[in-house]
Backbone:
């Protein structure tokens, strides 16, 4: 390919796809988590109507990331799925529950609607926690011998992955509450201002714990971050994170509507960047790089042509759907009415 690194291009596409999924499905999973705190039926209708037009399109990015991994890095796909098949299956079950609840809740009778509310909340909690556990287990390292997974089926049941599951619940709850600040008004919006001011401190706490735990448990990650000159190169990441936390608190206090959500997106992106810095260029930490896991050049090129054709369509219809359904969602009106 005349010096073009197809593995690097594919790694960037997959990183972009997963990041888009975390950002875009994160806030609607967060809305499901916040159902626990809101009991009023009409306010719950509003909450669901803020995400109902866009939620299924958000999950396109999950499909893109998984399919890209399968096509471009089949070794990584085989190892990661062998290590994490249980949390990933549990995650998919959670997504199915909440997906069904989206549609059936609005058709259910008053007597039965609470079952679909519970399915929506439960599916959101299960999907979010499972994603966090899978991410934590991935960061913790996956043992590989002779290009095959060498661990047990329950290796993900360890303190660090379980804490990452809890951390993602906090992150998605913050995303969801700031999304609802932007999309709602009145008492519901005021409740979300209050919740966000709590969640932002919880988010700072979990990011700090993961940032300390990871280098302590993995000397190679500590060396990546804390040796010269890397320390100076990577210092902007934690400094920008701290700035975003302070700015979020200020904008919440001043009752800004869109800015807290945008700042939370930036926090998620910076946290994601920090994790990427810790493991790069490994696609299966700590031992398999993206070049070792790559499929043949012809396969990567063939899949890349399809991806480059498809990606603009995904981006355009995603942007268009958010544009069409922009603005506040009010009581008594919405996507399902």
Residues:
């Amino acid at each position: 390919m005349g010096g073009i690194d197809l593995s690097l291009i594919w790694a960037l596409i997959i990183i972009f796809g997963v990041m888009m999924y975390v950002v875009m499905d994160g806030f609607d999973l967060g809305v499901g988590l916040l159902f626990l705190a809101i009991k009023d039926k009409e306010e719950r209708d509003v909450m669901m109507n803020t995400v109902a037009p866009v939620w299924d399109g958000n999950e396109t990015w999950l499909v893109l990331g998984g399919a890209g991994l399968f096509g471009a890095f089949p070794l990584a796909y085989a190892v990661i799925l062998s290590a994490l098949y249980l949390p990933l299956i549990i995650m998919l079950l959670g997504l199915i529950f909440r997906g069904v609840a989206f549609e059936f809740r609005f058709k259910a009778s008053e007597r039965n609607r609470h079952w679909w509310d519970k399915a929506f909340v439960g599916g959101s909690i299960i999907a979010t926690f499972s994603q966090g556990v899978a991410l934590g287990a991935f960061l913790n390292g996956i043992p590989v011998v002779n290009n095959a997974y060498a661990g047990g089926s329950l290796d993900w049941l360890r303190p660090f992955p379980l804490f990452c599951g809890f951390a993602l619940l906090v992150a998605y709850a913050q995303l969801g509450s700031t999304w609802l600040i932007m999309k709602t008004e009145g008492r519901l919006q005021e409740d979300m201002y209050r919740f966000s001011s709590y969640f932002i401190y919880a988010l700072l706490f979990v990011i700090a714990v993961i940032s300390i735990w990871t280098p302590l448990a993995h000397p190679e990650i500590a060396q990546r971050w804390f040796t010269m000159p890397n320390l100076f190169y990577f210092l902007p990441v934690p400094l920008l994170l701290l700035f975003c936390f302070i700015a979020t608190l200020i904008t919440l206090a001043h009752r800004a509507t869109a800015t807290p959500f945008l700042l939370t997106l930036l926090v998620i992106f910076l946290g994601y960047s920090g994790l990427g810095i810790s493991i790069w260029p490994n696609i299966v930490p700590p031992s398999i790089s993206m070049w070792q896991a790559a499929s043949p050049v012809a396969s990567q090129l063939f899949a890349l042509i399809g991806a480059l054709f498809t990606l603009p369509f995904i981006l355009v219809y995603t942007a268009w759907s958010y544009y069409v359904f922009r603005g506040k969602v009010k009581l008594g009106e919405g996507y399902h009415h």
The two ends are 53 Å apart (CA to CA). The first helix runs from residue 6 to 34.
